[in-house]
Every structure is written in structure tokens, then in C-alpha cells.
Amino acid sequence: MNSAGADLYLLRRYQQSRDAEAFSELIGRHQNTVYSVCLRVLGNSADAEDATQKCFLQLALKAGAIEDCVAGWLHQCATRMALNARRQRISLKKRELKAADRRPVTTGDQEKITWEELAPDIDKAIASLPPDVRHVVVEHFFNRRSLTDISMETGQSLSTVSRRANEGINKIRENLKKLGVCAPLLLLPNWMSERGVTSAPPSLTRALAKIAISGVGVTGGIAGISVLIKLGVAAAAICVTAIALSLTWFARPSNSYARLTPALTSIEYNDFVTRAGQGDVFAIDAACYASLNGFGCKCDFNEARRWLKIGVAKGAPVALLLEGQDQNGEHNINILKRNPIAAQAFFVQASTPLRKYATSGDIGAMYFLGICEVEQERKENGLKWMLQAAEKGFPPAYGRLGSFYLNGTGVQRDPEKAVMYFQKGADLGIAWAQEQLGECMSSKLFNQFNPLTTRINKDDGAAVSWFKKAANQADPSALYCLGFCYEAGRGIDKDMNRAIECYKESAKQEHAVAYYALGTIYLDGGAGSTDLKVSVNWLDAAVCLDPDNFAFVAQRGIALDKLGQSSRAIEDYNRAIEIGSEWGIGKVLLNRGLLLNKLGRVEDALSDFERASGFKEDKDSAVKAFVQHGNLLFKLARDKNRELADYNAALHLDSNCAEAYYGRGHIYDREGKYAAAISDFDNALRCNVNWALAYSARGRSQFGLEHYDAAMIDLNMALSLNPHDPVSLQMRGMTHAALGELQPALDDLSSSINEAPNEAKSHIIKAKLYARMDQSDGVIAETDILSKLHAMTEVTYYLRGVAEGRIDDDVSAAADFSKALEIVPDYEPAHEGLEVVKKRLIEKQHPTTPSGKMKDVETPPKPSSSDF
Fold it and tell me: Which residues contact 776 (CB under 8 A, 6 or more apart)?
């Protein structure tokens, strides 16, 4: 709990129940500062002690009227008390003469100014500051708290806090100047920090302790304090002593659950830990709950877990309650698999002792019993106990009531009332109430899914302030929410490094969603680069904490899929589909289908794509599933009508789906409907103007219409976007050939082969071009490569046969013509070529036979898309 919040909470405790412990704690926090102010103004210890006691008596009298910083109010009160005392001691005439004698201090005199001379006027100047500025000045310069701590406490930016500190110093100097004193700019802050607080003498400490007792249990307590003030400090001290001796104060039992609040001190917490180590059951409960919530210590899940295990073994009621909630998956302290039946047994076991303590008046037990009743579905009873705890001033009850009204637990849902209770708990320093209040105010966090929160005014900046306050107490949910705000730039400047820091701090306390957020950041490259192994590690941790969380399991499946761990990825996809609801399953089916297709399980992939397309509420995944189903059918050339239906269905859901236009355009291109194909590729490029593949595809359709110049423009554009695309290089080579530009055609085809050496089509086209150019060596070289690729066709065997015949290798030519005829028996050019080489072979065997001449290869016509 932050300092200002703790002060207000202690003051409320005193105001509502005359709690001596609370008022004593307040005195201990501020007695040195108050005494130092009085001493500076009055100049002697005895008068300063009197004024200090009066100041704390005033605090008790006006407790209900103080709503902002207690430290700032006390400083202002101390200044006024001391000034009033000085006025009574010094005659008006002397004060006027003293003021008249003052003269402005020159630069040369500044070294002679002392703290003792300036101190009274400095305190008077501070007392006149606006409350928000006075708070920063007192906390920073007198209580020596860093500006960063004050920023986190108040939820305001560091620059705002720094500006207020500077504003305070400047106004103090201005007030001093009006009195004729020129304070040194550099010395003033240093003096305030180094000499601003003097330890109160023991006599004052004892007197203040008696004041703390006097305010409790006295009939007409406030009126009594007023009388003490009027009597004067000397008489008041005598009365206080008498009251202390005669008072029978029913001190709060040391084993009261009412002590488990943000006002728990570190001394009390350490005492609980010591007693817990000795086997004290209540102390075990206290140590467990305090370490879980950061009461008297920092939030520490490991420490909470340790005491939880011990407490459950010893039957400590709060430990039993927490274990039941853990079994229900509400805390994940013990990282157990959910077991609702076992959880109910723990709730029943915890209820009996808590009911006993609650009926005897322990407001903390009322609170815990209220939770037990709700967990056992006795929600109205739970609400009754929680209301009693809140009415009696138990701070955590306010936050819990906020949750009841937000979620309709035992009461009709009422978001305005929920916010009211969250606000009360937040003001008293309950970290998770601050976090919940922030969520209600945030325009995009978990509570956005509760439609009632739309009735709450949204203020992302205010939400961030509350998250900061709760995060300052190391609340894991608040740290996560603050990280989300930094990541999204919501209510604060976007800062991914700060987001990761917050998520990691939250993850230290095993906040499952923080693990998930970190896994997602490293999966998507939000940390500056993708790190799939780190992503999987964070997501492993999230799944370990909550193995039945659909989002955690599905996201880890995606990370494993990208990491190449296909078996584990499929296991996670299967598990996510098993535990998921309708929302989100479509995306998982889509991802599993893509992985199965990559693994060659085509039928399973088609099935997943078809199922995914049925989840229309996840429109994005359904559209992609239709496209993927159509693409796979296109590849298989199985059902062109279904292919077309898939792309049309995708476009029905999303008329701007570039991939669907692209896929349908390929169908039209394959059917020779080039104009329709070009129209679809136009639409694809309208949706994605820098899509290289769409330019390449449109160039191919332009080629089909023999619009070679238009085709060349599209292919050049495609290659400007992706210079290494083998398909575009190949297509441009064909276009060059169609335009009669044979050498550029060969260059593009060679480049295409460099990018995709095992792609047979470019070799085939090059072989045809070499044949057209009567370059037999080139034909033979390309067809030899095709042989190694096992990609020879009747045409390439024929071309090689002709090339071999032209270099007088008739035996090889005859073999290649024969192989062409084995593939296509009625391939006429191969028949003719074989007849010619047979005659030449006979002539070589019988020289007297008239010579047969090899028929020249006819020059091929201009290439068209069907030729290639």
C-alpha cells in the first residue's frame, strides 16, 4: 500500500472505530516531521512539543474532513499552530518592528543566510501552497521520497510530479521575496532535504502515545478532544494521563482477522511470520494472506504458497479457503489441476471456524466467510456477510462488493454501484480494487466483455493511474494491465520495452495471462525480433498454470508449428479444439489444416478447411478457410465447380478478399477465360496494390490474350516488387520470346532456373528456343538436365533427336525418337524423324544406296501460352 493511501486508511479506521492502533501508527509516521516544523517556527523544543501535541489533537478532531494527503495537511496544521503560538508569545509591536528592519539581501550577503533564519518563513510558504503541490514538496523534500515513488503513488506522470516540485520551490522563493528575503536557489532544496526533519524527543513520543489512547472508547470522544485542546497542552497532558490510567480499553485481539488489511505494518507482518514458524495457526493464515496481497510486505506468491501448504495441513481456515479457490483455478498458487469437487470440501471445512469468529464480531472473518458462502453457491448469505464487513470498515470488503455488483453475485448487476465500491477500496489502498477500478475505466480490457460496463464512463488515462497505484504494490494483475496499456498505447505513450518489463514483473508472481502476453510478443516479433523458442517457453508456463485455457493452448500450438515441432503443434491444436467454444475454433482448424497440408495429409487438411469455413462468427478465419479449401482443390484439379464455389463464398463474406479474387482468377485463366481472369486480378490488386503474384498472374492472362506489351508491363511490375520470383522471370522470358526477343528471353529463363534449379518448365522452354535458333548444343544441354530431373516429354525427346541428327549422331537420334513414340505412339514428328535417321543409318551401312538427307527442322511458330 502506498504511503498516502495507508495514511488515509489509518485515519478512516480511527474515525470510524476510535482505533488506537491506527492513530498510534499515524503519529509514528509523522511525529518527526510535525515536530521539526514547529521547532523551526518557534525556536525552542518545549514550545515545539506543545504545538506538536496540539497538531495531533487537531488531527483527531478533524479526521472526517481530511480527504487528501495527510502529510501535507499535518505540515500546514503544524505551521499554523506554531505561528499562532509565536503570535501569543511576541507582541504585535515587536513583530512590526522586526518586519520593518528587514532588508533585501544582496548577492554578496547570500552566503550569510542560514537555515535557522529561513526555516519559519519556508514553512509558512509551504502551508500556503495548493494541496497537490504541497503534497509533493512535503513528501519529496521532508520525507525524502523519490519523485518516481510519488509518481507511482499518485498515478501521475513523472514529469507532472517533477513540475510540481519545481513549482513548489519557486513559490516558496516568491513568498520569501515578498518578505524581503532572497533565498539561494540551489541551497533551498538541499536545506529542506537535509535539515527539514528532526527526531522528536522521547518526552514528546510518550505524550503522543497517551493522545493515541485517549481518542478510543471515550464517550463523546471528539468532544473530549476539543476540551483537551481548549485546556492547553499542560492541562491536556494531565488529563490524558488520567484517562489512560482509568480507561478500560478492549484492545483488539492479536488473533483477529480484522488485522489483515493494507495498514498491516512490516513489524506486524514479521511477527506473524515468526509466530507462524512456531506453528501458530492464525499467524500461518495471516502470513499466507498478507504475502499473497502485499499487506505489510511485497506481494510474494512463493511465500504465499509456502504458508498455504503449511496452513492446509494444519487446518487454518483462510488457507483452506485459498486452497479451495486454487482448486477452482482462481489463484493458481499451487499450480494444481482444477478439481471443483475437492474445492467444495475445502470451502466447507473453512466455513465452520470462520463462522464462529464472524459471529463473535471479527470483521475480517465476516469477509472471509462471505467468500466461502459465495463459493458454495449461497450467494445471498455471502453478500450479507460482505456488507457487514464493509459497514464495519474492513477495506478488502469494498473491493469484493464491487465484484459482486459488477458480476451480479447475490445481487442485481449494477456497474455504477460496483465502481462506487471499487473506488472506496481503491482509496483505502486495496491493490486489486484499484486494478478492478482501472479495468472498469479502461476502454479495452477484460471487463469490456461485460456489456454492463458500457454504462461506466471510460477514461484510459485514469485507468492507467489506478493500474500504476496497484502495480506499485506489486499486484500481478495490475502489472499485467499496465503492460497491456504500454503495449497498446492506451491511456499512455506506447512503449514496448516498458510493456515487457511490466509483463515480466507480473509473470514473476505466476500471472498466467502475463506469461501468455510475453509468449505472444516473442511469437509476433513485438520485442524487435521473433524468438520462437523463447515464445514457446513463456507459453509453456501459461499452459502449466492453466492447462484448460483455450487461448493459451492454441497460441502455443501456433508457436510450435512455426518452430517446426509439428507433432506437438498438432497435439495442442487437437486439445484446443477439444476444450474450446465456438469462438476461436475456426482459427485453430484453419492452422491445423495448413499444417496437415504441409505434412501431405491432404484429405485431413480439406476436412479441417471445410469445418473452419463453417464458423461464420469468426469471419476472418472462415474467409481464409474457404480460400485455402479452394486453393487445395485447384492444386488437385479435383472439382472445379467446388473451387469456384469456395472463392465465391469467401467473397460473399468479404468483398475485399484479395486472395479469393486471385484464386478465382486462376480458375478463369486455366479455362481460357482470360478477360474474366484479368478482371479478378484487377480486383485483387485493388485490395492489395503491392501484390507481386497478382501482377504476375495478370501478366500471364494478358499473354493468353496475346497482349504481349501489357503482359510485359505487369511482369516488370511483379519483378520490381520481387526480383527473384522464378515464375515471373519465366513468364517474362516467354513474353520476350513471343515478341521475337530471343536473347532477353534466354536471359530471363536462365535467371528463373538460378532461382529454381529443379523447375523443369524453364528448361523445356529454353530447349525450344535453342531449337528455334538452330543451336543444337543448347538443345542437348537443356534436355540432358531434363533427363536428370526425370522430366522428359515426347516433345523434348523429339527436339533432342533432331539436334543429335544435325550433329550426325543418328544412333542417339533414333533412340530419342523411339522414346518420344513410347510416350505418344502417334506423335507424327517423331515418326518422320525416326524414318530419316533409319535411312541414314542404312546408307552408312550400304554406301552404294542413294544418300538420304535429314529433313530440316521446321521453324516453330510464334510461342503462345499453349506452346509453353
Answer: 770, 802, 803, 804, 806, 807
Integer Cα distance of 167 and 169 in angstroms:
6
pLDDT at residue 406 is higher than 90: no
Q: Which of 463, 467, 460 is nearest to 432 (CA)?
A: 467
Residue 257: CB partners within 8 Å, gap ≥ 6?
A: 282, 285, 286, 318, 357, 362, 363, 364, 365, 367, 368
| Cell 465452520, located at residue | 352
**Average pLDDT value for residue range 402-412:** 89
Sign of the dihedral defined by the CA atoms of residues 794, 799, 802, 807, in that order: negative
For the chain, the straight-line distance linking the first and the last C-alpha, in angstroms and rounded, comes to 77
Distance CA(68)–CA(131), nearest Å, equals 8
CB neighbours of 97 closer than 8 A, spacing ≥ 6? Answer: none
User: CB pairs under 8 A, 24+ apart, for 723-727?
Assistant: 724/755, 725/692, 725/693, 725/696, 725/755, 726/752, 726/753, 726/755, 726/756, 726/759, 726/762, 727/696, 727/752
Q: Which three cell numbers stand for residue 643?
A: 473451387
- What is the C-alpha to C-alpha distance for residues 322 and 346, in angstroms, rounded to an integer? 9
Residues 102-137 as b or e (16 or more Cβ within 10 Å = b): eeebeeeeeeebebeebbbbbbbbbbebeebbbbbb
pLDDT, one tens digit per residue, over 253-312 is: 457 898 898 888 888 899 999 999 999 999 999 999 999 888 888 888 888 889 999 999
CA angle, residues 576, 587, 695, in degrees to nearest 5 = 150
330 contacts: CB under 8 Å, gap ≥ 6: none
Distance between CA 435 and CA 470 in Å, rounded? 6
| DSSP letter (8 states) at residue 141 | I
Burial of 174 per CB tally in 10 Å (0-12, 13-18, 19+): exposed
Q: Grid coordinates in use for 709?
A: 506489351
Using one digit for the tens of pLDDT, what is the confidence trace for 462-485? 999 999 999 988 888 999 999 999
Buried b (16+ CB within 10 A) or exposed e, 551-588: bbbbbbbbbbbeeebeeebbebbebbbeebeeebbbbb
Q: Name every residue whose Cβ is closer than 8 Å to that of residue 223 and which is 6 or more positions away in sequence.
A: none
